[in-house]
Specification:
With 392 residues, this protein is α/β, with parallel strands linked by helices. It has 2 domains: 166 residues, Phosphoglycerate kinase, N-terminal domain (Rossmann fold, 3-Layer(aba) Sandwich); 197 residues, Phosphoglycerate kinase, N-terminal domain (Rossmann fold, 3-Layer(aba) Sandwich), CATH 3.40.50.1260. It is built from 13 helices and 17 strands. A 6-stranded parallel β-sheet has the order 5-6-4-1-7-8. Helix 11 links the parallel strand 16 and strand 17. It is elongated, with a radius of gyration of 23 Å. The protein starts with 13 loop residues before the first strand and ends with a helix.
Amino acid sequence: MRSILNEKSLKKKKILLRLDLNVPLENGKISDTTRIDKIIPTLNFLIQQKTKIIIISHVGRPKGKIVKDLSLKPVGDELKKKLNVDVKLITENIYEIKNKDFLEKFDEEILILENIRFYEGEEKNDDKFAKHLASLGDIYVNDAFSCSHRSHASIQQISKHLPSFSGLQLDLEVAALNKITTEITKPVTCIIGGSKISTKIDIIKNLIPKFDNIIIVGAMANNFIEYFGNNIGKSIKEENCVQIVEEILSLSKKKECKIIYPEDVLVSKNLNGSPKNKDLDQILPDEMILDIGPKTINKIVNIIGKSKTILWNGPAGYFENPNFANGSIKIAKTIIEDNKSKNIFSVVGGGDTVSLLNKLKVVHKFNFVSTAGGAFLEYLEGKKLPGIIALN
């Protein structure tokens, strides 16, 4: 994978830059700019190199149709503000732009092609569409790791028609994930949560041979708590998962990876209720597990303290109610403390976990925080991502 950082002759080149600017929009306003903030270094680098930047991105799922509410205009306005440069949204139909000469008439340093998913050819990974897209630039740069698990025209096919490079953000993401999957400093610990164990089984199976500890939290821990003979009341759990739990336990034994699940929990009769701390054999039929308890928190804190590398994907409880956010907050604070003293390399991913860190305003205190979602998880499963293969 060649990084755009190492390319010498960029001056006056037209760069087709694939970004993930799929930001949340509420009444035409951006409610979270995290994805924009992350790609500012790449844009600044390309501006310094005196290139013409042509951004390719999407918002939402318009399914090949023009949807006015899914325009990239708010994104362009935000970029103009953050970078203090002129940004122009190109609203012309891409098929009517015959070649890159069309773009010469614009003085702006950054041009944005309107939502690439307004075109059917994008999600169909259509080669003709990709070839036409490629004709608008001199060089292609993928800085959208979070879209790189998609076989789409502007992610995969386009690289067949232009010199292709990775962007700064994609380089950082791959380097961070490699540090926790291939270039590991041991002991290494994974804290993994979520509501469905079946969606994380492949990740857990891929990590068990490489990791020393896998700590199961969140609703998926309820399957383990019940498997070991405890009543979980009316807690969320995934049905028909006994075989999955047995598979995880069997593989972890073979590979000498410890599986840790809660020893005590916080329960309530409903999501808005007050917390009660209980050991696993005390949970009543009308109670639900909503966070980890103090004994479990202490155990996790001790494990983090002995770890050199940590991956965190999924909060420990129902953090939307502050009564049940303590487990997740304590995990976050412990990792941050160890980061301060440079004792640990930490990678965090997953929408809910990132939301929690944003609420706490501590995203910058981890070594790497991924907003990549599906691509992040598929990489951890050991899958080859089409967008990364295309750059190789």
